[in-house]
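Sanity check. The docking grid for magnesium ion depends on where the pocket ends up, so I'm generating a full predicted complex first rather than guessing from homology. Inputs follow.
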Amino acid sequence: MGSETARETEVPKAKIPEIRYTKLFINGEFIDAVSGKTFETRDPRTGEVLAMVSEGDKDDIDRAVKAARHAFDHGQWPRLSGAERGRILRRLADLIDEHSDELGALETRDGGKLFLVSKLGEIPTCANTLRYFAGAADKIHGHTLKMAREMMGYTLKEPVGVVGAILPWNFPSIMFFSKASPALAAGCTVVVKPAEQTPLAALFYAHLAKQAGIPDGVLNVVTGYGPTAGAALASHMEVDKISFTGSTEVGRLIMEAAAKSNLKPVSLELGGKSPIIVFDDADVNVAAELATMAAFFNKGEICVAASRTLVQEGIYDDFVKACVEKAKAWKIGDPFDPTVNHGPQVDKVQFDRVLGFIQQGKKEGATLLTGGKPCEETGLHIEPTIFANVQDDMTIATEEIFGPVMSLFKFKTVEEAIERANKTRYGLAAGIVTKDLNTVNRVSRSLRAGAVWINCYFAFDNDAPFGGYKMSGFGKDSGLDSLHDYLNTKTVVTPLFDSPWL
Ligand code: NAI
Ligand code: MG
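Predicted complex below; grid placement will be based on this.
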C-alpha cells in the first residue's frame, strides 16, 4: 500500500515495538493481578492477539488506592515544592518525546490509529500537556480576602487527594495525560484505569514515570474491565475524585457510585453529537474539506466528531457534491501507511455498532450518498459514509455513532441553524463556517456547547479549557480550569487584633 509519496520518505518507518509492559503498575512495581487472571488485547488491523494483560479487579484497585492514599497522606509528592514537581514532570515529558516512535506504534497496534498522527501529533501533545501543567505547578495559590470585620482571611489551594482516572480507548495517550498532568501538578496521587481495548500505552507511561523520578505510589495503573476494576475505583471510599471520559451510560453509573459511596466529586466527559454549521458565504471547497475532516478524522472515533453537518440552502448542492468527492477519495487501509486517511475501527463491538447505526439510518429513510459498508479486503474498516435528507429526530441525528458517518441537514436562516444545532441532549463542541462576523458572534453565543470553533475544527490547545454542556458532562480536561478541578479551596481566618473570642 502507498509506497510512492514524498511523505513516506520523510518519515522513518515505524519499528514495530515488542510489547514490554503487560502487568499492573502499583506502588512503583509491575505486578500480577491478585487473581492471576489476564485478558487479551488485539491488533484491530489483523485481529491478532498483541498481548495478554493483567486483569485487575476490586482487590487490585484496593491495593492501588492504598498505595496512592499512603503516597498522598505520608509521601513527599504533595509536600514537594511546585517547582520540584514541575521539574520531575518535565523530565517525564522529555522521556515521552524520546520514545515517540515506540509509543506511536503502540497506539497504532493497540487501537488502529494512524501512526503518523500518533507519533507526530498525539505523543508530542502529551509531552507538551505535561510541560504546560509542570509550568503551572509552582503558580498555585489562593487569595487574600477582604473581610468585612477586623479579621485576616486567605485561601489555600490544596490537592484534592487520591484521583481515579477512568479512560476511553479512542485517545489512550491524550486522555491519560489530560487527566494525570493537572492531577500530578496539583500534588494529587493517581490511579489510572485504562480502557480494556487499549491498555498498553498507559503501562508504558507508568514505566517512564518511574524513570522520571515520580515516587512510588503516586501514579498507579490498573488494567482491567469497566464493571469490575472501573466500578471498584468509582465506588472506593478512599478515592477523593473521579475523572472519567467515555459513554453517557457509564458516566451515569460513575456518578451513582460516587453518590452511593463517599460523595466524591466527579468530572465527566461524555461525548456528543456536535454540529458544524456551514453558511452560504463559505468557500465551498474549504468548507467541505473542514466538514469531512471534522466528521471522519480518527475513523469518527472522537468525542467532538462533527456528526451533524448543517448547510445553508444556497450552497447546499455544491457542498454535498464536494463532500462526496472527498469521502470517495479518502484512503482506507493500514494505519502504518502514511498515505492512508483511516484505519480499522477499534474492535468488533464498535465496528458492529457503527454498521448498526448505518443500517438504522437507511431504514429510517435517510439517503445514503456514499460509503455505508465495510471495506472489502479487511475486517474492521468502514468506508466514510454520508447521509443526506436526515431528519432531526432520526437515530443517526440523535445518537453518538463514533464512526465515520456524516449526516447532512439543509437550513434556510440563521435562527433555524441555531435552533436545530441546539436540538440535542449533548453540548460538547460546534463548528461555524462563515466570513460574516455578525453571524459568528451571534451563533457562537447562542450555541449551548463547551467549545465553538470558527472556520476551524479540533482546535484543541493546552491553554484552552475543554469540556461539555448538558449531557456531554461537566468539568474540564484542559487549560488552567482543569488544574482547579484537582484543587480544593481552604479558607483560613484569624482576627487581626486581639481576638474577641479569646
Ligand atoms: P465505556 O463508557 O463503556 O468505556 C469507557 C471507560 O469506562 C473504559 O475504561 C471502561 O472500562 C470504563 N467502564 C465501563 N463500565 C464501567 C463501570 N460500570 N464503572 C466504571 N468504569 C466503567 O465506553 P465503550 O463501551 O467503550 O464505548 C461505547 C460508546 O461510548 C462509544 O461508541 C461512544 O459512543 C462512547 N464513547 C465516548 C467517548 C468519549 O470520548 N466521550 C470515549 C469512548 C466511548
Ligand atoms: Mg462499555
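Relevant for the grid: Residues 226 surround magnesium ion (ligand 2) (CB under 6 Å).
Also worth noting: The chain has 16 helices and 22 strands.
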